[in-house]
Amino acid sequence: MEITLDLIKTLRNKTGAGINDCKKALEEADGDMEKAIELLRKKGAAMAVKRADKIANEGAIKSSIADDRKSGAIIEVNCETDFVSKGDEFQKFAEDIAAAALSTGSGELEKILSAKTGNGLTVKENIDSIMGKVGEKTELKRAKYIKVDDGFVAGYIHFGSKLGALIGLKGKADDESMKLGNSIAMQVVAMNPQAIDRSGIPESVIEKEKDIYRTVAKNENKPEKIMETIVNNKVERFYQDNCLLEQEYINESGKAIKELIAEFNKKNGNTLEIVSMVRYQLGEEVK
């Protein structure tokens, strides 16, 4: 596979590694981006692997939550320029799509595209209309619907509508619990956890991390007798960084999210439990 400059730049954006290191890693990986990232990490050349792709599209992330709080939908709609996406008309258009997604009770794009919005037109007809007005390609990229019959949905959309999250919680819905839920949704936006808890992270991911940590330790000439301790400590840190319940709460240093929820439940006689989570970042790759 030809190693192009664009490919090298993409790897550099993802890892922060030098251009020569990126070029060599891509050549060794025969152009495979994920393998090249892994090679750079093993060599210690990747200072910080970005979990999301560099933003490639403009548009908006919007959500809509039902009046009874038991269901919610989040969507990403894209256009070509920041100028269009910041306009009031486009923002309202994106909010209408989120409301339509909620009304369908589905994250399936075809169902959402055929759903009616407040102006009587379908989502697809509204997309065609706004494309004609702004002269830019506009599309509904993705959507997610969550429902919690024995609890509620909370959410947070960051200023600028480029990041957003919804979480589903079992437990009693009242003003205080919904306030906490919204704060945890903000945590999801800010800290980008991979899963709610350890059970949500595939074993293959952990084994890959262990392999990287062992390789780095060997390259640093760490003694064999302490190598597994080093690896295990780093795996623990990986869980703390990537599992929502183990992350440090952004609004209170030294307190994990699971501790925050436990304290809240004890104080308020509630039984809150996070059961679902979705986070959207504008322009990220959909896997």
- From the N-terminal CA to the C-terminal CA, the straight-line distance is 23 Å
> What does the average pLDDT come to?
91
CATH architecture of the largest domain: 2-Layer Sandwich
CATH superfamily of the largest domain: Elongation factor Ts, dimerisation domain
Write up this protein.
The chain is of the alpha+beta class. It has two domains: 50 residues, Ubiquitin-associated (UBA) domain (Helicase, Ruva Protein, domain 3, Orthogonal Bundle); 151 residues, Elongation factor Ts, dimerisation domain (Tetrahydropterin Synthase, Chain A, 2-Layer Sandwich). Helices cover 47% and strands 17% of the residues. The protein contains eleven helices and six strands. The strands form two sheets. Strands 1-2-3 form a three-stranded antiparallel β-sheet. A hairpin with a 5-residue loop joins strand 4 and strand 5. Helix 1 crosses helix 2, helix 2 packs across helix 3 and helix 3 packs across helix 9. The radius of gyration is 22 Å and the shape is flat. About 3% of the residues have low confidence.
